[in-house]
C-alpha cells in the first residue's frame, strides 16, 4: 500500500529533525518520484545527501532544481545560498538572474540579493542592491550592518562611519559593527570612539551567554585599536588581553587537529607525480593568480596593488579551489576531517578535472583580463595540488617576519574563523606548521611559488612588483604603485588601510609591546620561528 504524500512529507520532516539522514533520503526520493519538479523536496534531498558526506549527487540535485524554480523570492534565494555554499557559482548566478527579473522587488528581496552577491564576491553588485534596498527602507541591524560593511568595502569610508554609528546608537549589541567602525580610520585625541564605546557597551550589561561575551570581546577589540592609535599602549594591551581571553575560551585552538591536517596534506603531496612545467593560459582564457601565505602578511595590499594593472582583476578571497577538490573526491566539506579524507584519496584524484571545474566556476571574474587574483591565504597548504590542477596558474607567496605577522594576527578580531590567533602559544604553533609546510613545498618543487617579502613591497615597491609582473609575463604599470588610487572593492579587515598611499608604519609594530610579547618570541624560537 502506498503511503499518501502528506504522510510521506511528515515522515521525511521527522527523519530530518531527528538526524536520520539515510531514512530522510529514502523518503524524499519517494516524494521526488511523484513530483520531480518539487524544488523544496529536491533541496531537502540534496541536504540529506550532503549530511552523509556525498557532494557530487547533492550538487546534481541542486542544479536540477534551477530550471523548475517558481516565482518565489525566498525559495530562489535559499537555492542560491545552497548552490554557492557548494561551489556551484554558475547555478547560484542563474538564481540571481531569475530574482533580478522580478518587477519592483521589495526591500527584503533586494537585501537578499545584496547578501548573495556579497557571498559570491561580487561586491559592486552587492553594494548597488543594498543602496536600492536602503532607498525603500531597511529594517533591522543586520541590514544596516551589511550596508555599512559594503560601503567600507567599496571605499566610501565616511558614509560607512555614519551608517555604523547610527546602527550602534540603536542596537549596541550588534558589536560586529564596532570592530569595523574602529578600523575605518586612525583615531585621534581630538576625534575618537572611546566615550561612545563605553556608552554603547554599558547598555549591554554583563552578559554571560556566549553571544553576549563575544560582543564584549568585540568591544575590547575596538577599544584596543583606538587606544593603540592614541599611543596609550598599556591600556591598549589590557583591552587586547581581555578580548583574546574571551575568544580563546569561546573558540579554543586544537593544535593536534591542525598538525594531523598538515601531516595528511604533506603525505598526500609526496605521493603525487612530478609537477608539470608551468604553462601559459590558452588564448582567450584567463589564468588564476594565487596569493598565498599567512593572514595579515600583506596579501590584501599586494592584491590591491596588482589589481590596479589593466590585465589583472581581483576576485578576492574565494574558496573555489578547495570546493572543487572536495567535489572531485566526492567528500562534502566539513572542516579538517573532510580535508584529511580528501587527502587520503590522493593520488587517484583527477586533479586536471579539479582545475577544469575551478576555471568553469571562476573565469567570469576576470571580466576580460588576462589574470584574476584568488587571494585566499590558506591555499598555501594546497600549492602542490594547485600546480597539477592548474599549470597555467601563477602562485605568489608573500612572507612577513614571524613577530610582525604573528602580532598582527593576535591584534585582529577574526571571529570564530581563526582560533589560533587568540593565544600566543597557539599562534606560535600555527606559525610553526605554516613554516613546516612551506619548507616542504620548497623541497618538493622549488619553483612552485614566487616568494615576495612584505618589507620589499613597501620599501622598494617598483622592484618587487616588476619581479611579480615579469613572472606573469606582464609589463610594469605605474598604477600598481598607487593602491590608494585603485577604486576596486576590498572585502577584508585591511580594506581601509590599503586605500592609503604606501607606508612603512606596519614594519616592526610589535615592538610597541615588546615586553608583553616576550612569551610569543620565545615560543616562536622553540617552534623554529
Question: Describe it for me?
Answer:
The chain is mostly helical and 529 residues long. Among the domains are: 1-103, Alpha Horseshoe (Serine Threonine Protein Phosphatase 5, Tetratricopeptide repeat), CATH 1.25.40.10; 280-404 and 452-517, 3-Layer(aba) Sandwich (Rossmann fold). The chain has 25 helices and 5 strands.
Annotation keywords:
single chain; 529 residues; mainly alpha; Serine Threonine Protein Phosphatase 5, Tetratricopeptide repeat; Rossmann fold; 4% strand
What form results from the Cα inertia axes? globular
**Percent range for helical residues?**
55-70%
**Within the largest sheet, what's the order of strands?**
2-3-1-4-5
Q: Return the CATH class of the domain at 280-404 and 452-517.
A: Alpha Beta
Radius of gyration: 24 Å
Oligomeric state as shown: single chain
Outline the biggest β-sheet.
Answer: 5 strands, parallel
Q: State the secondary-structure class.
A: mainly alpha
Low-confidence stretches: none
| Helix run count | 25
Amino acid at each position: 500500500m502506498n503511503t499518501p504524500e502528506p504522510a510521506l512529507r511528515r515522515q521525511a520532516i521527522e527523519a530530518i529533525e531527528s538526524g536520520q539522514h539515510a531514512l530522510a533520503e529514502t523518503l524524499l526520493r519517494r516524494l521526488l518520484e511523484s513530483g520531480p519538479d518539487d524544488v523544496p523536496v529536491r533541496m531537502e534531498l540534496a541536504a540529506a545527501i550532503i549530511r552523509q558526506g556525498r557532494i557530487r549527487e547533492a550538487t546534481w540535485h541542486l542544479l536540477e532544481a534551477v530550471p523548475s524554480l517558481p516565482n518565489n523570492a525566498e525559495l530562489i534565494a535559499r537555492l542560491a545560498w545552497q548552490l554557492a555554499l557548494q561551489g556551484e557559482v554558475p547555478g547560484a548566478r542563474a538564481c540571481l538572474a531569475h530574482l533580478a527579473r522580478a518587477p519592483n522587488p521589495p526591500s527584503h528581496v533586494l537585501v537578499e540579493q545584496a547578501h548573495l552577491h556579497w557571498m559570491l564576491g561580487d561586491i559592486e553588485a552587492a553594494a548597488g542592491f543594498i543602496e536600492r534596498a536602503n532607498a525603500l527602507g531597511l529594517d533591522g541591524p543586520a541590514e544596516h550592518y551589511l550596508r555599512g560593511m559594503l560601503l567600507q568595502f567599496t571605499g566610501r569610508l565616511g558614509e560607512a562611519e555614519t551608517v555604523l554609528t547610527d546602527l550602534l546608537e540603536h542596537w549596541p549589541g550588534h558589536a560586529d559593527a564596532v570592530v569595523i567602525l574602529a578600523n575605518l580610520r586612525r583615531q585621534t585625541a581630538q576625534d575618537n570612539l572611546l566615550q561612545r564605546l563605553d556608552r554603547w557597551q554599558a547598555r549591554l550589561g554583563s552578559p554571560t551567554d556566549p553571544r553576549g561575551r563575544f560582543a564584549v570581546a568585540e568591544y575590547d577589540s575596538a577599544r584596543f585599536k583606538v587606544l593603540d592609535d592614541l599611543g596609550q599602549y598599556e591600556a591598549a594591551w589590557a583591552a587586547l588581553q581581555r578580548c583574546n581571553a574571551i575568544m580563546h575560551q569561546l573558540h579554543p585552538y586544537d593544535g593536534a587537529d591542525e598538525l594531523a591536517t598538515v601531516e595528511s596534506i604533506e603525505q598526500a603531496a609526496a605521493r603525487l607525480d612530478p609537477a608539470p612545467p608551468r604553462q601559459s593560459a590558452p588564448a582567450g582564457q584567463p589564468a588564476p593568480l594565487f596569493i598565498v601565505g599567512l593572514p595579515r602578511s600583506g596579501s590584501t595590499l599586494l592584491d590591491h596593488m596588482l589589481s590596479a594593472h589593466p590585465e589583472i582583476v581581483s576576485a578576492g578571497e574565494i574558496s573555489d579551489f578547495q570546493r572543487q577538490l572536495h567535489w572531485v573526491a566526492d567528500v562534502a566539506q566539513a572542516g579538517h576531517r573532510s580535508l584529511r579524507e580528501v587527502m587520503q584519496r590522493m593520488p587517484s584524484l583527477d586533479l586536471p578535472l579539479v582545475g577544469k571545474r575551478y576555471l568553469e566556476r571562476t573565469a567570469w571574474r576576470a571580466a576580460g583580463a588576462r589574470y584574476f587574483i584568488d587571494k585566499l591565504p590558506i591555499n598555501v597548504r594546497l600549492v602542490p595540488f594547485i600546480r597539477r590542477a592548474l599549470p597555467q596558474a601563477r602562485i605568489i607567496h608573500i612572507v612577513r617576519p614571524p613577530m610582525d605577522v604573528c602580532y598582527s594576527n593576535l591584534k585582529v578580531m577574526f571571529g570564530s574563523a581563526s582560533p589560533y590567533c587568540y593565544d600566543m602559544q597557539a599562534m606560535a604553533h600555527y606559525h610553526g606548521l605554516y613554516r613546516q609546510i612551506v619548507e616542504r613545498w620548497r623541497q618538493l618543487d622549488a619553483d612552485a611559488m614566487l616568494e615576495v617579502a612584505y618589507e620589499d613591497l613597501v620599501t622598494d615597491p617598483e622592484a618587487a612588483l616588476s619581479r611579480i609582473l615579469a613572472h606573469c609575463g606582464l609589463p610594469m604599470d605605474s598604477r600598481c604603485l598607487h593602491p590608494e588610487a585603485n577604486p576596486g572593492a576590498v572585502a577584508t579587515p585591511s580594506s581601509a588601510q590599503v586605500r592609503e598611499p604606501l607606508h612603512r608604519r606596519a614594519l616592526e609594530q610589535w615592538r610597541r609591546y615588546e615586553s608583553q610579547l616576550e612569551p610569543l618570541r620565545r615560543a616562536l624560537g622553540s617552534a623554529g620561528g
